[in-house]
Design brief:
217 residues; alpha+beta; 4-stranded antiparallel sheet; 8 helices; 4 strands
């Protein structure tokens, strides 16, 4: 894998507020704090959640954090009264480009094809292309990307909001595709499940060609 030049970020006041909010929720969930500031502290807390926990436990803890950010009554109302129509999915994609920039960096809206449960093909602008994921770049860990971001975020939107979401990270260039309206497949059927460690980025990388050991452990 080619070495990717690290992106320099300049967080504004709103970015710092979101980072502080998420970090505070994560620190409460994990029962510890971090000595690092800003986004570095956010990633450090993610690593603390990962340490000593199985992949399933990591996902469950992140799910708790995500649910703590939105009142259960709001989740119920959205899940009950807002079916994943084209408008709802496209609106979520638009909001994602605005609200998640502090977390994953810049992203763009894309037109995608969705296959419905009735095997109908719909074309809609509910895709989000993350240019280079800040979280993956900062952590440098395949397992953290999958268990601390991809899987719990997919589950949160699909089950708690009732709006299907599939996230497909690209470990070559650190981009990622989010598709609102597409039900997430089982991890075992995705290329991400066989992704080796990012040897040039992860300090604890396994140098075998086997999948990153932190994906399932």
């Amino acid at each position: 894998m080619n070495v990717i030049e690290k992106t320099e970020y300049h967080d504004n006041l709103i970015d710092r507020v979101f980072i502080a909010l998420f970090s505070r929720k994560m620190a409460k969930a994990v029962g510890t704090n971090t000595s690092f500031k800003g986004y570095e502290g956010f990633v450090d807390l993610s690593q603390k959640i990962m340490n000593g926990r199985t992949a399933q436990q990591q996902q469950e803890l992140v799910s708790i954090v995500l649910k703590s950010l939105v009142p259960s009554s709001v989740l119920y109302l959205i899940r009950t009264f807002f079916s994943p129509t084209k408008w709802v999915c496209e609106s979520n994609a638009w909001f994602a480009t605005i609200l998640f920039e502090w977390l994953v960096g810049k992203s763009d809206i894309q037109e995608v094809e969705i296959i419905t449960k009735n095997n109908q093909i719909l074309t809609q602008k509910s895709g989000v292309k993350i240019q280079k994921c800040r979280y993956l770049e900062e952590s440098g860990c395949v397992g953290m990307c999958i268990n601390m971001c991809k899987l719990p975020t997919q589950k949160f939107f699909t089950e708690s909001f009732g709006i299907p979401l599939t996230m497909t990270p690209n470990f070559e260039d650190f981009s990622c595709e989010m598709i609102f309206g597409k039900y997430p497949p089982h991890l075992e059927t995705e290329e991400a499940s066989n992704q080796p460690c990012l040897k040039t980025h992860c300090p604890t990388a396994s140098y075998s060609s086997q999948p990153c050991p932190k994906i399932y452990n």
